Amino acid sequence: MIEDIRDITTRAGTMETFICHPERNGAHPAVLMLMDAPGIREELYDMARRLATVGYYVVLPNLYYRAGRDTKFGPEVTTKGSTEQARMRAVRTRMTIPPVMEDIADMLAFLESQPGAKAGPVGTHGYCMSGPYCLAAAARYPDRIAAAASFYGTWLVSENAESPHLNLAKAKGELYIACAEHDELAPLPMVAELKALLEKSGNRGELEMYQGVHHGFAFPQRWCYDRPAAERHWERLIALYRRCLG
Length: 246
What we know:
Blueprint: E1 2-10, E2 13-21, E3 30-34, H1 42-53, E4 57-61, H2 83-92, H3 97-111, E5 122-127, H4 131-140, E6 145-151, E7 174-182, H5 188-201, E8 206-214, H6 227-245
Parallel strand pairs: 3-4, 3-5, 5-6, 6-7, 7-8
Antiparallel strand pairs: 1-2, 2-4
Helix pairs in contact: 3-4
């Protein structure tokens, strides 16, 4: 395995980015892995490594880079009322879809110059806050993004002008949306509405409900980690990328 931390130049500055890919067999299809709200941490690096071992060039950026290089938080970030959570939320509340779309454009441009990344279609998947970013990116860059997945994405249907549910039909790539049965950030009525909209869009993808689990179920270090559901998430994600990227 080859891994590195690089600074990707964006129109807003420099974005610290973890990159990993197989050591052998030439260039590999590229995927953008987008973080959840608690931010960059070793747990996410390990998940990126797992995906890279099956043949992908994985790009994991720190999307909080506009707020500075100290936007990595301790384990208390998931504890309600903690200082670390408050520090994270001060950054998280300023995150919107438009600047992240700029970041994705800059990452796509970066990939064109990387010998380890195979030219051609790109995949993207995100957790929690980044679920909407991935779906929005598939609609914004339909000729580049061939697969996009959201895992317990938050507020995928909202009143915001850039809400991803408004542009599902613009995505040419296959979409996969995984929702947790118990998730206050994606209530069941919202999930039902989104499922109907996805079916109406004509996209060949699917929305799948993971029964009996909670928001965050795929993270090994989270209280709600559910191994069977987490392994299903890997199965679905890798199958999606195999179909669409090779």
